[in-house]
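Teaching assistant here, posting this on the class forum so everyone can see the example we discussed in section. The complex has two components, and the goal was to see what a joint structure prediction looks like when all of them are supplied at once.
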Amino acid sequence: MFLDISLILYSIIGVVLGTAVGVIPGVGAGTTLAILFPFALFLPPMHSIVMMSAVYYGAQYGGSTTSILMKIAGEVSSIPTMLDGHKMALAGRAGSALTISAIGSFFAGIVMVLFLYYFSPSLSNFSLLFGPSEFVLLLILGLVFSVILSNSNDFIISLGLCIVGILLGLIGLDPMFGNPRYTFGIIDLHDGISIVTLSLGLYAFCEIMRTESYDHRIQKIYNILPNMVEIRSSIFPIFRGTIIGGFLGLLPGGAVLSSFAAYFVEKKINDKVGTGVIEGVASPEAANNAGVQSSFIPLLSFGIPTNSAMALILGLLMIHGYTVGPKFFDNALFTVLVFSMVFGNFVLLILNIPLIKIWVLLLKLKSVYLKGLMLLAALVGAYYSTNSIFEIYLMFFFGIFSYIISRFDIDVMPLLLGFFLGPILEENFRRSMMMFKGDITRYFDSYLFMFILISLFVYFLYKIKKKIWA
Amino acid sequence: MKNLLLGAIFIIASVVYIIQSQKLALGTLTKMGPAFFATHLSYFLLVLGLILVTKSFFNYQKVPLELNYKKILLTFFCIFIFVFFVDLLPFWILLITIFTTFVIGDKYVS
């Protein structure tokens, strides 16, 4: 059954489609799965689930290509890759960045698929340890690290930008009461600001408006393959990224959070991360793919979808009559799914490495042509992901904002992460406060919460001690 | 200059959110209203903004912004073409038009 040629074919279609949509900013795996959903209902159950899963993890590969080459993140999770990857591309090392990104993703994908196969039931219990209170602290931890490790070197500014991001993320309908808030009477804002609009504005539009030309900066594109030093430097970051992504992928929103977390950890270990080094590409890419694969664990164990794409796959499983839960692991579909994932990851690697030669040719274009292409990709991505003209103007506004503050060398990463995590943080905080009946001290009842809090406290003590000694 | 600009942005953003929050229910810690989280964050942002503005008075260094306004206008013009013609022109013609406008315009603005 595992060598069924039609299953292999659907797996290939899925990963190719996923890679293609991952390249286009704003489309993303969730939207593609939603479009494909009605068609998938007409396919045999196994074929449809194998294909839809392949689209989902294939999109993570595609997202890194435009991030590295054009500073346009096809997927939100590719934003950390963009920071070092694009700088590497400008230094003539796009080939290395793309190759390591493909290898890192492949390694993390395979490791997590094997984990999925052998350790799903035990790993799934880990995700149950995280209630709203633990999640609140984890999100605050993510935000604090984004502020501490941003390139701005000014804590107050980074913290302020992070709060601005959270406030922007709260625009739209209130998730509990359903009434519009902070929409300023603009109907287009009722759905909130799209993360695609914000990220394209902050990064792509800012780059388009810059006068600096790449032509003198892009050096000769020498090696497509990474050298031994780069390979050696990538090994541990890939391992670290895989572990971080593997665990965070078990949590809601974790697949996206994992690439940011891996980037911050790498930056903590290596000061050069952020200046265009391979470690800044290897770790988030591995984390991103590991997170995607591990997000299947809570889905298949408990039926908990950790994002919209997973929710669609769960819907498909239910429509086809499969019941997720511990017994699902005895089902033939589980084995087929795991084999198709292993196969899909191999296809992605084979597909992506030869394509790198073609992709890097993009960098040989004059910077004005490259920026023209960036403009088109950003416009098409923003318009077709939101179907709103208003979002285009908003993207331009964020572009100008980012362009102005980039003149002071201020990093907009905390704003973006605040925007993404803010609504999740608010929702979990509200939920936990309802559970605890407004008693904030109940947070300290959780052992996991205390563990994270003490770790954070010890970390800050260590930092203060280091500063005093210095 | 940096502190003053960012401080001003933070103060404006927080004041806008605080004013908007007046129209929404605040609620209590047990049953938070739509404005609870944002209001508290806005006050915090206001404090940060005031700190930055105060800091800027003690350490003011005028840094020229050096923005290329013509490039900003060119980008806006390309967006305008997209917005205005997206339903009128075939898609590929629209994309070629925007690309050509940007490339030709860039020669004059850079």
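For the discussion questions: The first strand of chain A starts at residue 172 and ends at 173. Chain A touches chain B through 53 residues (CB under 8 Å). Think about how each of these relates to the inputs above.
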